[in-house]
Amino acid sequence: MMSVAARRGALYTSTQHTVNASVNVVSRLTKDVVPAAASANGATGVRLAHTDMKVPDFSDYRRPDVQDPNKSAHGSYESRKAFSYLITGASAVIGVYSAKTVVSQFVSSMSASADVLALSKIEVKLGDIPEGKNMTFKWRGKPLFVRHRTEKEIATEEAVNMSELRDPQHDRDRVLKPKWMIVLGVCTHLGCVPISNAGEWGGYYCPCHGSHYDASGRIRKGPAPLNLEVPYYEFSDDDTIVVG
Fold first, then answer.
1. Alpha-carbon separation of residue 167 from 22, 154, 214, 218, 220 (angstroms)
2. Is residue 212 annotated as part of the catalytic site, yes or no?
3. 3-class SS string, 94-122
4. Which residue stretches of the chain have pLDDT < 50?
5. What local confidence, expressed as pLDDT, does residue 1 receive?
6. How far is the C-alpha of 192 from the C-alpha of 143, rounded, in Å?
7. Which residues pair with 183 in a beta bridge?
8. Which run of H or of E encompasses 14?
9. Which of 31, 138, 162, 209 could form a disulfide with 168 if both were Cys (CB 3.0 to 4.6 A apart)?
10. Which entry of 50, 148, 170, 209 is annotated as an active-site residue?
């Protein structure tokens, strides 16, 4: 029977061999491992990102003149910028010309033709209008008032104080000859036809909304903002006018 000392010696020797073998295995496993360098704040120096990724090749999407890394792209940039300016300028010129053409065609389509303009003039014989009376003619689809004024009406209208008028105009600025008053018979409020020789000033009165005009066609009372319009006309002789 083995003694206690003998058994302890055998067990110690076996245990020592096991420990040495384990140390050798661990040493071989950790031989090529580089220890991480830790800083004071706990960060390590181990790179965790992948470094074996292949960089994509975008050569198929790049212009040939900028693919050479040893060649400056400045010259290519200047040429590209000049080309862009050229295209922009050409587009602007084409756009402006097209807009001009469209506007010109639209305006010309809205304008009266030559035959219509030829019929847009009217000749009025003044000798047919008695003194103190107003006659109405049709001109360009509008009523035309031709009034043969009396000396009293002329004197009254020329003496009007301009400060009293809503649309100040002197009587002399509205006539070529004092005894003949030519205006369009269209109220400047909403386009109604005034009544001649009526109203508080004895000129024209609009029955629609109560605008009063004097014998010079100037607004004196009511909602109308402006005087009756004086169309372009001229005397072809002492007894005839041509309107238009």
1. 118, 19, 12, 7, 9
2. no
3. HHHHHHHHHHHHHHHHHCCCHHHHHCCCE
4. 1-2, 4-7
5. 43
6. 10
7. 145
8. helix 4-29
9. 162
10. 209
